[in-house]
Amino acid sequence: MLVCHTINEIKSFIRQAASLGKTIGFVPTMGYFHAGHLALMSEAKKTCGVVVCSIFVNQLQFGPQEDFACYPRDIERDKRLAEEVGVDAIFIPSAEEMYPPRFSTFVETKKITDCLCGKSRPGHFRGVTTVVTKLFNIIQPNMAFFGQKDFQQAATIQRMVEDLNIEVKIVLVPTVRDKDGLALSSRNIYLKGAQRQAALNIPRSLALAAQAVENGERDPAKVKMAVCNKLTAEPLVEIDYVEIYSLPYLEEISLLQGEVLLAIAAKIGKTRLIDNLVLKVPDNGQSSPKR
Ligand code: PAF
Fold first, then answer.
1. Atom number in ligand 1 closest to CA 30
2. How far apart (Å, rounded) are the C-alpha atoms in residues 247 and 132?
3. What is the extent of the structural domain holding 216?
4. How many separate domains does the chain show?
5. What is the pTM of this model?
6. Catalytic residues
């Protein structure tokens, strides 16, 4: 596996691969890999001739009170894991390489970022879309892979590539969960003792919502209320949001029908976790959760 720290190095690798007619699959990450990241890489491996992964903890997408400084990092382990799943090249730029001193251009997608994490974390998606645009311009991938856990992120990037005519296919890969149901996240490492157990109320409340819809509930307010009650039954859980939106544009709805997104963000101590479920609500009142 080739390890590149500069834009020139990775571009020359890409030029060579493209000249051999290989499809370029790209997995942008902030590192500290878990099975969720590796699933993105494996998916890319299945469909693309060459797989490139990036590791860059992007300060631009962290708020001033957020965990940029202590965001977990382990580059040596990441390199090993990426190589094991067959990544061909890994791009690990410095902050100066990505944001040189006179950097002053930003990419912002409106509307779809007005709700959920976009509302709770002002400026977050502007940081994401700016860095992802740069990475897309550098790597020029045919396909890019994003996890369903960050559903709004993937939806925002999809909006951005359509709006800006960026020629890349965005592939959404299902959330990978621990055996106990907790969605994998690099931030799970912050959970200590009883907090890990408390966090399980997040996937459990998603399951409860799926059950309610399966039992015929079609009022989003009632489903949200049931989820909130389940979450707050655990005193260590502090809800940021519980929302249900239509797909694919994340718009408010008053009736559950078709495909909808149920999204949760909650804090356990200082750790902010997100999770979601896409609910398929068939006309006959049956639902089947698609994770
Ligand atoms: O999902 C992430 O890890 C980041 O938001 C991304 C897409 C790599 C941009 O920094």
1. 3
2. 22
3. 186-278
4. 2
5. 0.96
6. 37
Q: Length of the chain in residues, anyone?
A: 291
Do 160 and 198 belong together in one domain?
no
The answer to whether 149 touches 264, Cβ cutoff 8 Å, is: no
The CATH number covering residue 131 comes to 3.40.50.620
**Do 31 and 55 form a contact (C-beta atoms < 8 A)?**
yes
Please tell me if the CB atom of residue 132 comes closer than 6 angstroms to any atom of ligand 1.
yes
Does residue 27 contact residue 50 with C-beta atoms inside 8 Å?
no
- Are 9 and 129 found together in one domain? yes
Whether 180 is in a domain gets the answer no
Asked whether residue 245 is domain-assigned, the answer is yes
36-95 per-position pLDDT tens digit = 999 999 999 999 999 999 999 999 999 999 999 999 999 999 999 999 999 999 999 999
Same-domain status, 212 and 134? no
Q: How far is the CA of 200 from the centre of ligand 1 (A)?
A: 24
Say what angle helices 35-47 and 75-84 make with each other, to 10 degrees. Answer: 40
Judge if the beta carbon of residue 58 lies within 6 A of ligand 1.
Answer: yes
Establish whether residue 29 lines the binding site of ligand 1, counting it when its CB lies within 6 angstroms of any ligand atom: yes
